[in-house]
Specification:
The chain is of the alpha/beta class. It has a single domain, classed as 3-Layer(aba) Sandwich (Rossmann fold). The strands form 2 sheets. The protein has a 7-stranded mixed sheet with strand order 6-5-4-7-8-10-9, with helices on both faces. Strands 1-2-3 form a 3-stranded antiparallel sheet.
């Protein structure tokens, strides 16, 4: 739905035509590079916008309004990290996004996409457990690991008031139960707008282990 010069990317998130154009350019880059390396599954290319762009963009709405530094771990093909960086270029131009990706080929893609799209990103080519604490306001990860492991990865890198945002699928409740056996944390569970059986977990105040 378009209103004037704004387009509703997903419910509650309106962006400019320039941002939509950047997202289209990013899609073209992912499609091109996926021919050589596995950035996304080829089956998902038929529904690329919903499966990847909107699915990533909805995470932006869960971040606190005053965030300034965001880290995306296991960024892979740039979901949600590059999508967040594209949105931030318009909506929060002072922010920076760190993309952590240990696969060198995917890290090269992330750097290339960031340069071509003129984004404010920092790509770190290493495993998250090997890098110094980032002290971020928001940390995200999409389809990377179990919730218990994600919390372990996130805790050293979050600011004391920071939050972690993790999309999860149909096994969400069993993952939450397992995570609570190892950690204490405050949890908000939000229904995904792109899949009826998917959820987005917002986590803060991590203690334990």
């Amino acid at each position: 739905m378009t209103k004037g010069q704004q387009t509703e990317l997903c419910p509650g998130l309106n962006v400019s035509r320039e941002t939509i154009t950047r997202l289209d350019e990013f899609e073209a880059l992912v499609r091109k590079w996926t021919k050589g390396i596995n950035l996304v599954s080829k089956a998902s290319l038929d529904d690329f916008w919903t499966r990847h762009i909107v699915d990533s963009a909805q995470l932006y709405l869960l971040a606190p309004p005053d965030w300034r530094v965001w880290a995306d771990i296991g960024s892979g093909g740039g979901f949600p990290g590059i999508v967040i960086a594209i949105l931030a270029l318009e909506l929060k131009p002072e922010a920076t996004i760190t993309l952590v990706e240990s696969d060198q080929r995917k890290a090269t893609f992330l750097r290339t996409a960031s340069r071509l799209l003129r984004l404010r990103t920092n790509v770190v080519s290493d495993r998250i457990e090997n890098i110094s604490p980032l002290g971020v306001d928001v940390l995200s990860a999409r389809a990377l690991s179990s919730l218990t492991q994600l919390i372990e990865m996130a805790k050293p890198h979050l600011d004391p008031q920071g939050i972690a945002i993790f999309p999860k699928g149909e096994t969400v409740q069993s993952e939450i139960d397992a995570a609570y056996s190892a950690w204490s944390f405050a949890l908000t569970q939000t229904a995904s707008i792109t899949h009826p059986n998917a959820w987005i977990l917002t986590i803060k105040g991590i203690t334990g282990a």
